[in-house]
Specification:
alpha+beta; single chain; 1 helix
């Protein structure tokens, strides 16, 4: 499932099916998402403006 989140450059589309975990960055207004790429086994990190609660709400709306 793809969700539209936002980073410092604007909209970013994240495939939530590949996200292994996400958490709020302590002391900042950003959330870090870690995605797993099954083809080569690497992880990629993104920092977005939405809070974990906002992301969970988006996920709930899509299911």
């Amino acid at each position: 499932m793809w969700v539209e989140l936002h980073d410092s450059n604007g909209p970013i589309f994240i495939n939530m099916d590949t996200v292994t975990h996400f958490q709020r960055v302590e002391g900042k207004r950003r959330t870090t998402l870690v995605t797993f790429a099954p083809n080569n086994g690497t992880c990629v990190m993104f920092q977005v403006n939405e809070s974990p609660d906002e992301i969970m709400e988006m996920i709930g709306e899509n299911y």
